[in-house]
Amino acid sequence: CGAGSPPSSYYILTSSNQQTSQVQPLNNISVGVGPVLVPGHLDRSQIVTSTGKNSITIHEYQRWGDSFKTQVEETLAENISILLQTPKVAIYPWERAQRPEYQVYVTIRRFEGKTGMNVTLDAIWQIVRVDTDNSLLTRHFVETFPVAENNISSYVQTQSNALGTLSQEIAKGLHSVVAQ
Amino acid sequence: CGAGSPPSSYYILTSSNQQTSQVQPLNNISVGVGPVLVPGHLDRSQIVTSTGKNSITIHEYQRWGDSFKTQVEETLAENISILLQTPKVAIYPWERAQRPEYQVYVTIRRFEGKTGMNVTLDAIWQIVRVDTDNSLLTRHFVETFPVAENNISSYVQTQSNALGTLSQEIAKGLHSVVAQ
Amino acid sequence: CGAGSPPSSYYILTSSNQQTSQVQPLNNISVGVGPVLVPGHLDRSQIVTSTGKNSITIHEYQRWGDSFKTQVEETLAENISILLQTPKVAIYPWERAQRPEYQVYVTIRRFEGKTGMNVTLDAIWQIVRVDTDNSLLTRHFVETFPVAENNISSYVQTQSNALGTLSQEIAKGLHSVVAQ
Amino acid sequence: CGAGSPPSSYYILTSSNQQTSQVQPLNNISVGVGPVLVPGHLDRSQIVTSTGKNSITIHEYQRWGDSFKTQVEETLAENISILLQTPKVAIYPWERAQRPEYQVYVTIRRFEGKTGMNVTLDAIWQIVRVDTDNSLLTRHFVETFPVAENNISSYVQTQSNALGTLSQEIAKGLHSVVAQ
Amino acid sequence: CGAGSPPSSYYILTSSNQQTSQVQPLNNISVGVGPVLVPGHLDRSQIVTSTGKNSITIHEYQRWGDSFKTQVEETLAENISILLQTPKVAIYPWERAQRPEYQVYVTIRRFEGKTGMNVTLDAIWQIVRVDTDNSLLTRHFVETFPVAENNISSYVQTQSNALGTLSQEIAKGLHSVVAQ
Amino acid sequence: CGAGSPPSSYYILTSSNQQTSQVQPLNNISVGVGPVLVPGHLDRSQIVTSTGKNSITIHEYQRWGDSFKTQVEETLAENISILLQTPKVAIYPWERAQRPEYQVYVTIRRFEGKTGMNVTLDAIWQIVRVDTDNSLLTRHFVETFPVAENNISSYVQTQSNALGTLSQEIAKGLHSVVAQ
Amino acid sequence: CGAGSPPSSYYILTSSNQQTSQVQPLNNISVGVGPVLVPGHLDRSQIVTSTGKNSITIHEYQRWGDSFKTQVEETLAENISILLQTPKVAIYPWERAQRPEYQVYVTIRRFEGKTGMNVTLDAIWQIVRVDTDNSLLTRHFVETFPVAENNISSYVQTQSNALGTLSQEIAKGLHSVVAQ
Amino acid sequence: CGAGSPPSSYYILTSSNQQTSQVQPLNNISVGVGPVLVPGHLDRSQIVTSTGKNSITIHEYQRWGDSFKTQVEETLAENISILLQTPKVAIYPWERAQRPEYQVYVTIRRFEGKTGMNVTLDAIWQIVRVDTDNSLLTRHFVETFPVAENNISSYVQTQSNALGTLSQEIAKGLHSVVAQ
Which residues does chain B have within 8 Å of residue A1's beta carbon, measured at their own beta carbons? Predict the structure, then answer.
């Protein structure tokens, strides 16, 4: 079977783990993150960047630690837990005993860009009261983030920052629904 | 075995993200897009163009980011969300908590053409009231769009524009059913 | 694994999209086409022509865009929709909200011939009232169509025409049952 | 691996499509054909001939258009439809709306022979009233048919004729049960 | 993948199709044959002969038309049908409409031997009344049959004869239970 | 690929088919044999012998006609049927109509040894009344049998004899429970 | 498939089949052994030894007769049956008719070591009353056993001895619960 | 095909098996550990270390004895059993008879680092009362542990220590809920 394929390098999204003054703690709120939907063309283990208005590059040898969807779910959950300083943040699907009060649905529509240029995150997030299942808040988040260097590591870092900003919006949203 | 296959290039349909004055916002309407049916010979990961009246070319190394069907669903949903300025646009199948008021069924009969020539979009779309499941409006959309350049990128761009125009029709349709 | 196989060419059946004066519109009738049964030896992605009274040729490198059965279903549905000028024509199986008033069962017994010679279409079609499920009309259609040139493209074109003629019979049948 | 296998030639059983004076039309009878059982050693896509009293030849490169069982079912149904001049002949299993009045079970015990020699068809056929499910008539059919030439095409033609004769018996049987 | 394997020759068990005076017809009895159990080491598509008291030869290139079990079932059913001159003999499992009055269970314990020597058939057969499911008759059949020539064809012929004799016992058994 | 593997030789366990004076017939008792449990390391199609106190040899090219478990089940059933001179001995699982009065569970713990040395059979057998499902008799059988020659055929013969002796114990057990 | 892999040698755990004076018989107690849990890294067909505090060697060509888990279950059951001199010892899962009075759950946490050094067995065993399902006794067993020689056979022998000692503890435990 | 892959070395997490004075025994508490969730990119049989802020190395030839998730579950259960000196510690999912009073849910968010540098364990643990299913205590544990040497064995040892510390926290937590 010919020469072995070149070794892949693996990347993970990381939580921006510094609490920001912008968000007050809500340390006995319990939150469930997900289901998180990502666009079909991003939901794979290879990292995807855009090369033109309607064309993308699938990087065979630059891959996520597992799948992009899991990376996004885990990072959002970790951010919200840090921002609100509550350990009670679970990822969908959760055990009965871990049923949260509030559930955050996230649908990501765009989350790609170019290394050395920028990344756009375009997502819809919605907070639902779990026991009544009624939808309290639905918001559209769209922002473009500059990618410092022209390499995948910096690209992934930018995506982490983008999720950090989105998490702050969601955390503020949780504050507003709790306050009602 | 033998020489590796040439690298594929990957394309995505994109939303025409400029609100047009033609369509007023309906920002607390909730809409569900799908199921979207596409012709058998287009429902694959390769891009398809027509070569004669009844023959097509399946481009092995020019592929969609994932499948053509998912690309069409995601782009229609994004367009309608932008046109009506509502975040509450979900893709079929949706979670109970995201059940929309109106559901848009789309059956695409023809959606191909020739690079450097034109693309024809021939589709039936139908708006259904979700809680009563009765069908409010069924329309037939058929229009031909010129393809600027003789390459796949431009072909894909034209298909994006075609879906943009179809989305405007659907958005106007939603206005008419809401007005009843 | 040896030399790659020669590239296949792909064909699709096309609707004869000119309304004929023979058939009046029935533009708010709703029709469901299928299940459509095709003979075992034709239900494949390769195009089949007959070489003798009881022998056929299976063209490995001349193929349908997807399967012959789907091509026939989609083309019949499109023809009927154009002939009766109604968008409400669905292909079996349909969603609850798209349940038609009338359902057209089609069993194709013979639908092959020779390039440059002719093609014979031998089919049974039956119109059923969907809510009562009782059968209103059953007809046998058999007709031979000349194939202009000695190539597959012309063969496929002839098959398209044959389905066009069959569709007109079915459209007239729908008129007769509606009139009762 | 290595040289490709030689190309196969494909055969189909054909209906003897001339109404015979022997059988009167019964043109609004509805008949269901099947399940049709064929001997294990014939139920394959290769054509089988016998080489000795208890040995057979399986022709790797002479094959049925699909499987022998489907060919027999389709040809019997077509013959009966032509003989009784009724379009309402369905093959098991059928849709609810196509439920026939009479169902014909066929168990084929022997249906092989030698090219250039003869073919023996040995079968049990049984007519059952569908709504009451009780068995009206069970007959044993056994007859030997000469094979004109020493080639598979002629062998297949002989098998078609054999099924033609069996169909006439069944058609007469249907007349007798209807007359009761 | 090296040289192709040598071509296999295929064999079938055949019914001894001469009614014997020993058995009177029972021409409106309905009989179901099976389930027929065969020893694990015989239930394969290769023909098996014994080479020593406790060792067997599995003939890779001498095979049954399909599986040994199906061959035995079909041949027993055909024999009983011929002996009792009744078409109503079905093989397990049967359709509701073909439910027989009497069911014959057959468990074959030994059914092998040596070419040019002999074959021993050791089997238990049992007749059960189908509607009451109670067992009317259970017999043990064991007999050794000479194999004329030292080749597989003659070996298979001997096995056919053995099943012929067993069928006669079963036919007589059916007479005795019917007479009760 | 490469040289074919050497041809395997196949063995079967055989019933010691001489009634012994030790056991009286019980010719209308009905007995079910099984489920029979064999040790994990013996339950395979290769023949297993022991090479040391806690090591075994798995003979790749000396194999059972099918699996060791089936061979043991079939041989025990045949022995009991011969010893008690009753045809009504079925192997688990049986059809409803063949439900036996008594069911014999057998768990084999040790059943290996060395060619030219000896074989030890260590088994627990239990007789259960089928309709009440209560256990009537549980016995432990352990005995060592000399292997005449230093070859697999003789080893298999010894295993057959061992099962013969075990069958006699079980037959006597059946006498004792029937006598209660 | 270059050179064939070297032949594997296969090992089995054996019962220490000498009743010890330490344990009195309980010959009409019925005991069920299992489910037996073994650590993930041992539950395979290869034999595992430890090479450092937190590293192990998986011996590709030294394998258990089947899986380590089955070997442990069978050996524990055999030991208990010999120690208590009762045949009524079944392995989980058992047939209804073999339902035991007492069920022994065993969770093995550590069961490895070094050839020529020693093996440590660290296990939790628990006796449960089957009909009431309440837990009567839970004990922790941990002991280190010297491995005589520096080879796998001696290693396996030591593991057999370890299970022998554990079985004695369990047997004594059964005495104590029976006595209550 | 081609050269075999280099041999892998296998590692296991080990319990820090010295009771610490910090934790008092609770020797008749019954605890269930799990479900334990680990990050997607760690849940594999290869050992994972981090190479940069958001990139990891997957060590193809340094692997866990089985999967990382099972290693973590088994080690936590063993630690808690040793710390609280109770044998009654089961791993999820457990048998009915082993249902614990308290269940410990563990979600590990970060558990990687660099050889010769350090490892960070970031986890949420929660104690739930099993019969009432209500959550008694939820804590966030995050600590960084130095890795002594620049090799995988030392890295694995550090991860074992980290789990040891986490286990102590959980053990203290169990004391606090029991005390309520």
Answer: 1
pLDDT given for residue A19 in this prediction = 61
Preceding amide of D39 cis, omega within 30: no
For residue B28, the model assigns a pLDDT of 84
Give C85's DSSP letter: T
What confidence tier does C4 reach under pLDDT thresholds 50, 70, 90?
low
Interface test with G, best of F36, F38, F41, F103 (most G CBs within 10 A): F41
Closest chain D residue by Cα to residue C48: D65
Torsions phi, psi of A174, nearest 5?
-60, -40
Res. G90: pLDDT tops 80: yes
Q: pLDDT value at position D41? A: 96
Neighbours of chain E (3+ CB pairs under 8 A): D, F
Q: What's the pLDDT at G1?
A: 47
My answer on whether omega of the bond before C93 falls inside 30° of 0, hence cis, is yes
Residues 100-129 of C with CB under 8 A from D: 103, 105, 107, 109, 124, 126, 128
Residues of D (48-107) whose Cβ lies below 8 Å from C: 64-67, 70-71, 74, 77-78, 81, 87-91, 95-98
Helix (H) or strand (E) holding G164: helix G152-179
Q: Which residues of D touch C35 (CB under 8 A)?
A: 95
* Cβ atoms C173, C139 nearer than 8 A: yes
Between CA F39 and CA F121 the distance in angstroms is 12
Q: Which amino acid is at C23?
A: V
DSSP state of D85: T
Q: Which region among A78-82, C141-145, G27-31 has the lowest average model confidence (pLDDT)?
A: G27-31
Q: Do chains E and H touch (3 or more CB pairs under 8 A)?
A: no
Instruction: Name A175's Cβ contacts closer than 8 Å, sequence gap at least 6.
Output: A23, A24, A26
DSSP for chain E? Answer: --SPPPPPEEE---------TTS---TT--EEEEEEE--GGG-SSEEEEEEETTEEEEEEEEEESS-HHHHHHHHHHHHHHHHTT-S-EEESS--GGG--SEEEEEEEEEEEE-TTSEEEEEEEEEEEETTT--EEEEEEEEEEEE--SSSHHHHHHHHHHHHHHHHHHHHHHHHHHHH-
Write out chain F residues lying below 8 Å of G11, CB-based: 54-56
Residues B152-177 have pLDDT tens digits of 999 999 999 999 999 999 999 999 99
Tens digit of pLDDT for each residue in C60-101? 999 999 999 999 999 999 999 999 999 999 999 999 888 999
Cross-chain residue pair D97–C135, CB shorter than 8 Å: yes
Which residues from chain G sit within 8 angstroms of residue F105, using beta carbons?
A: 95, 97-98
**Interface F:G, ≥3 CB–CB pairs < 8 Å:** yes
Helices (H), ranges, A19-151: 68-83
User: From the CA of D37, how many Å to the nearest CA of chain E?
Assistant: 10
Nearest of G96, G13, D89 to residue F40 by alpha carbon: G13
User: Do residues B69 and B39 touch, judged by C-beta distance below 8 A?
Assistant: no
Are A40 and B10 in contact by the 8 Å Cβ rule? The answer is no
The pTM score is 0.90
